[in-house]
Amino acid sequence: MFKKITIPLAVIIAITIFGIYASKTKTNRTVYAGVVKGHIALLDPETGSVQDSFPELSVNRILDYFDRESFLVAVSKKPSEYFNPGGDVYDIYKLNLKTREKELLLGSASQAYLSPTREQLAYVQNRTLKILDLKSGESEEVAREIIFYPGFPKPWSPDGQKLAYTLEIPANKARNYVYDLTTKNYLALIPEDEEAHPYVLSWDQQKKIIAVYNPESEKDTVKIVKIGLDGTKEVVLELPTTGAPTIEDISNNLLLIRYSETNSLTLFDLSKKDGDPKKVLTINDPNYRAFANILPNGNVFFKEIRLEETEGGLKEHRVRTGLWRKSDEQLITLPEDVESIGG
Q1: The pTM of the whole model exceeds 0.85
Q2: What CATH number labels 22-341?
Q3: How confident is the model at residue 170 (pLDDT cuts 50, 70, 90)?
């Protein structure tokens, strides 16, 4: 059960993460894997200690984890604090923090998603969706000219047997497909004659596609729908266009919406039944711009910074870095230099 809270004075830097990793120390403390000054490291929030690893790699983001020791990471040849999937390309590595082994899985990918079985990697190169078999090293092309929000779609079905994605078609329209890895068949989810064209975002745990219908006018609403593989559709959330809502992140039936006009963020739980409030978390301060990202289990990683106007332009001052844990609804403080976290 989520508790609705407000995090004040927050400018929260966006981190896109597919998984969380936490390990117990010998003294039964929880440590986290994160990125500090471009390097992957183990973080102990209780002591503030940071154990650096792989200093030769400029790690932009922890994308996922294979197990408690090995992580999937995006490495850039031009270091940047901000992860820009879709806009930049990265080398994708598997790093083992215990043995210090590293393995380059593929290069020049704008997005990479580890399958739930941890045996395959879906990735995007030049708007082409491909699958890499991690055992054989062979790649398979799935589709070209795919459309994605930064970091979206999160294509894998819960069983790791299907991929969902959106294709661009003529007249600025889009169609959604599901590719079955077992049968090698393609399924078109939305009829060609449908006027509105939703975009794939993710899957729910019942093997339905979560998609968004963008409003055609200011009088319309933003519709979040669940689409069954049989074509059935269910509207699970409607948002008025007031405040200019846009999608910031989605994971595990949780949806993070940014209201651009107020710089506020709201977290919705799409699994809640009709009649129950879907709004579960609000990050809102009109004086600051807020960013946040959802971990797959509902935790939220955040950074708070204060902006100061100087002669040389705006200067950022770090106020706090932390993690909001779903399990106990607590805010955990992390070392200030942490740029992202994998758990």
Answers
A1: no
A2: 2.130.10.10
A3: low
